[in-house]
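# step 3/5: fold
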Amino acid sequence: MAPHLSKRELDLCFSLYAAGKTPVEIRDLVSRTRESLDETGPDLTTVRRALRGATHRRGPAETRGRKPELTAVKLRALNNARVRLIRAAKGEAEIHLKDVMKAARVSDVHKGTASRHFKRLGVTWRAPRAEPLRGSAEAEERVAARSGWKRLPGNYFTHQVDAIIDNKVPPIPMTKRAKTHAKKNRVRGHLRTKAEGVLKPFTKPKGNRNRVNPGAKVHVAAAIVNNKVRVWHYLPTLWCADAACDFYAGVLAPALRRCRKGRRAFRILEDNDPTGYKSKKAVDCKRRGLKIPPIKLPKYSPDLNPLDYFLWAEVNRRMAEQSAPANESQSAYKARLRRVAMGIPKSVIRAAVAKMKTKAAEVVVAEGGRIPSD
């Protein structure tokens, strides 16, 4: 039977374990030392029980002097444990810092120290992001669509797709109060201290309590043609099958013939909303009358449509930068909105459309789920 671990060997085991050595490596090092004395090395179970504190009771931990530091090895173990626990929970339970420290077996470091180092990595307590209505079938459809897109040339969406279209119902802030409210809601954060969060300049309107009537809403259908907003059409009614057919025949088709001369059929990328785009009437109008075959876009995929992930936000940003009059009529606002949208430089829109190939590749890596650039 091998001799028990001596006090010196026990100290060596704990120091090696703190340095990141595994129990197997520690056992080998202790055995190598004993071989020089013609003694049998300890077995692996003895080393593991000693490291767990199941044997060789030691005195109470020293609480005086400098506290144990959080080394890079321990911080990496904490971060790995955090990711592992969150993935294992599958969004059904909360994972707190104490759970992470227990799973990483880093109990000798103060909780505040671990929290402070996590903040330096950008890991803080944040509310979960709302997941789109996307199930396993929709995720598989997104991956399948990307599999077809990967064989396309790099300039396919910027040069070979004739139009990329979408529709939206943005509010029209017609009063000074509504414009101020809209600007405050667009602010994403401040460079401030924790105590300054209660001061008025650092606050923003709260959801339902501070709701402000913007004055009106507008129904707009837009299209990117030749890497430029060539169509910005205000719909007289809500988007539906009839409105879609009128838009295809009376607005989009003439714009395509004007901007994409020499083509007999036009290839467009559009939303997958069944309300107007995929309605039977709109499908027949595109296929038979106008020869506009749409590219199949997966369901619940706004991250693959440049108007959703770029254009609407860019128009709002440029509108906010302008010094608009305090009280603006609806017609004046709509005219200014159209000028801003159609005035976005071609190079800016081309760069946004070119990201579609990269975003599609991220969809495959995420297995059809949310992508990092979303």
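# step 4/5: annotate
Residues 171 and 217 are 4 Å apart (CA to CA).
# step 5/5: archive (pending)
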